[in-house]
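Entry 12.
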Amino acid sequence: MSSSAIDVRPALAQRVEIAKDALIVDLTDGRSLTVPLAWYPRLALGTTAERTKWRLIGRGEGIHWPDLDEDISTEGLLAGRPSGEARSSLQKWLHSREELANKRMQRTAHGKTKRRR
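Predicted 3D structure (C-alpha cells):
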C-alpha cells in the first residue's frame, strides 16, 4: 500500500459579517461558517459600530474586535467552541462599559451647558 503526503493547510478567516443573530466568517478555502451570535456575549452586546470594526489576527488565524476586547480564533469557530469567558469577567467588562458611557454622558452634558452660556 502506498501513501502520499497530504498538504494540510490551516483554514484562515478572510471576511467577517455580523447578522441580526449570527456571526458569519468566510474562510480562504471557500467555506463560510455561521455561528450563533449568542455564543459571543461581547459581540452580542456590542454596538453596530463596534461590531463592524474588526481586524484579522495573523494571516486569518483569528479575528479581533478592539472596541469590544474580543478575540475569536478560526480554529475555535471550526471546532464549534463558544466563548469560554467566565461570567465574572463578562460582568467586569459590562461594568467598565457602563462607567465609560456615564463619563461620556457627563462630558456631553457639561459641554452643552458651557455652550449655552
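Annotation: The chain has four helices and six strands. Residues 18 and 114 are 39 Å apart (CA to CA).
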